[in-house]
Amino acid sequence: MHVLQKEMILPNGVILSNRIAKSAMSENLSNKHHEPTPVLINAYKTWAQSGAGLLITGNIMIDSEAIGEPRNVVVQDRKNMEVLKAWAASVKGTNTQLWAQINHPGRQAMEQINSTLKAPSAVALKTGGRKNTTKKVPEVLSESEILDIIEAFAETSIILKEAGFSGVQIHGAHGYLVSQFLSPYTNIRTDKWGGTLENRSRFVVEVYRKIRERVGNNFPIGIKLNSTDFQKGGFSEEESMAVVKILSKEGMDLIEISGGTYEAPAMMGKRKASTIQREAYFIDYIEKVRKVTTTPLMLTGGFRTVSVMQDAVASNQLDIIGIARPFAVFPNIGNEINNESRTDFTCHIKKTGVKVLDGMMNIIWYEAQIKRMGQGKSPNPNLSGWSVFFNYVWLIVEQKLIKKPVVIKE
């Protein structure tokens, strides 16, 4: 048995069957009303057979008025409980856990399909709500709205637990709402939710506490956290390590390290020369943070070869190898890693040749591969970037034409 096949015991006693995890990826596979679809569930049935110890879903939004992409799943009440149960049951009969990633986009809500954008402070996204849109200044969240969002995180979590998901992961990275509260660049509040790091971290601490209160101690709660924003005046490595210590003390079960925001997408460009050989984008940071916490650490971004993955865990730099995009191209990846039948999982996306569009391909090309899996097809490494782009545009147009249903919260 090699090191990636070993079990991982989380702080609350829950056991992951091995050290391989599918990190969250955008699926964009809800229906028009943001409900899970058979295609989405089928994709997870495929991944359930991949041999991974943990699957983490893509963004599940906690509020239908704050949506990141046109076909994000929204869970804010129990009206779709049966289909949520079917999704959770996609891993039934396997040794794989399925955690739901829960999120609020804040100022990164998609302008084309959200009537308003709300955030900790009135700081506009430099690139707009999405690529090539207007620089819309978000409305500042009031105290009562902040408390409502904290409650919404908890409500979504208990619904997902009741549906049968194995755990939840708070999305606290990539410039979404939790990340916005943490960063001094996007949080310039002067009340108890802004200013000092203690105040800026108050939101994520209260989200964790409220979820824990609702789901109990035996249900895993993880978080995806930025190592840094890679922005001048933003969330720094030193602050990130301080937040790791805070969340570890609170009892967080798994901390996944990533980095960057829509304005500074760290995993879309070149890595530092010092880390290329070790593949992972944030390996230097994980070595530092390992020294300040005993909470299990998961690192996502860049891992492609089995030998490097094994070395990273064997050296105790981290506990869980997070893999995202290769799961969309190599759906049997966990088994192939464990039996070493494939040792390199490098992916090469097909682009359009238009720079402004090809930045999007880093997300939507993989979404298209996931959709193929959910339709019972094999991933297509030669999938046209142009066809992917035009299909994505149609989703935005279609969603904009739909009247939002009245949502009755229980």
Q: Which homologous superfamily in CATH is the superfamily?
A: Aldolase class I
How big a fraction of the residues is strand?
Answer: 5-15%
Count of extended strands: 14
Q: Work out the count of structural domains.
A: 1
Regions with little confidence, pLDDT below 50 for 5+ residues: 128-134, 266-271, 403-410
Question: What value does the Rg take, in angstroms?
Answer: 20 Å
**Residue-averaged pLDDT, rounded?**
90
Order of helices and strands: EEEHEEEHEEEHEHHHEHEHHEHEHHHH
Number of helices: 14
CATH architecture: Alpha-Beta Barrel
User: If strands are numbered along the chain, what order do they take across the biggest sheet?
Assistant: 3-4-7-10-11-12-13-14
Q: Name the structural class.
A: alpha/beta
Describe the structure in your own words.
- The protein is α/β, with parallel strands linked by helices.
- The protein has one domain (3-401): TIM Barrel.
- 36% of the residues lie in helices and 12% in strands.
- The protein has 14 helices and 14 strands.
- The protein has helices spanning 38-48, 81-88, 143-163, 177-182, 197-200, 202-215, 237-250, 273-276, 283-289, 306-314, 325-329, 333-339, 355-374, 385-401, and strands at residues 8-9, 15-16, 20-22, 54-56, 60-61, 73-74, 97-103, 118-119, 139-140, 167-172, 221-226, 254-258, 297-300, 320-323.
- The strands form 3 sheets. The protein has an 8-stranded parallel β-barrel with strand order 3-4-7-10-11-12-13-14, surrounded by 5 helices. A two-stranded antiparallel sheet has the order 1-2. Strands 8-9 form a two-stranded parallel ribbon.
- A hairpin with a 5-residue loop joins strand 1 and strand 2.
- Helix 1 (38-48) packs across helix 13 (355-374) and helix 3 (143-163) packs parallel to helix 6.
- Residues 128-134, 266-271 and 403-410 have low confidence and may be disordered.
